[in-house]
Specification:
The chain is mostly helical. 63% of the residues lie in helices and 1% in strands. The protein has eleven helices and two strands. Strands 1-2 form a two-stranded antiparallel ribbon. The chain is elongated.
Amino acid sequence: KKKTNKTNITHEVRASERVFSSNFSLMSLHTEQVPEAAGQVRSAAAAPSSSSLHAVLSARLLALQYPNHRLFDLDSYGERRALVCWLENMKIRLYPIENRAGLSNFDEQWDERFRTYLTELRCPHRLDNSDSKSIARVFLWLLGQALRLEFHDLAPQYDPVLAAKHSFLVDEEFQAALRTLCSILEISHTSNQAELLQTVSRTIVRDYSPAVLERANAMETTDDRLDLKDFPSGFDCGDPLVDRAVKVLRLLYLLDMKHLQSDINALIAYAQNFSAQPVTNASLGKVGK
């Protein structure tokens, strides 16, 4: 790995980061600028309590433009059947048109056909018409599936909205700053923007964080560096170039393990804030919160 003078280029990296930070703030998608259906999907995403079930159902039905969304009653067997028929015909369309008659025929075998329909949709919930919670789980899942398919159908309408939010990615000033930063960090510039930005982010965090720069300055002061030839590879391949490559890979692996251990230590330290400060209660004869 080519050695880079981290101290000298720190200011250039931070200057380039300011360009990125001003542009990345545009990436947050504001709900009020998305079509009404998407806003309703977002408000209905959380699992509802019993008190909010009607509001969640109404929101999802409104997002799907169900005609009776305001007055829909989940406790009504007839309204549930009518909703299933409408969803299949208008939104889900699992069956060909000629095979949808079974869900429109409200006879004694309808429940059996509906359970078969749920199975073919791979619904994870079991329907029990005597259990209101079971009915709610099934119909919330069914409406969620319909919303997912609806968004898939309308994706071309939403794409321009999302594209406008990310237009800075093709901005000339942004691209120039990205190329400069990649050159400073010695990263190959690729056409895959997402992958490239992730690589830039990881490199800055790994090589130019305050702690890393502090260690680099200390090493320059003490000149206490490890020479690659003094590092053991663990085995001899018989080829000096291959041996050097093995040593580099081993060092990189050890560096990854060090970062992992540091993350684990930080997580343990955070957990100990809640568990490692016992309170002694002499009257109860026990120690701990």
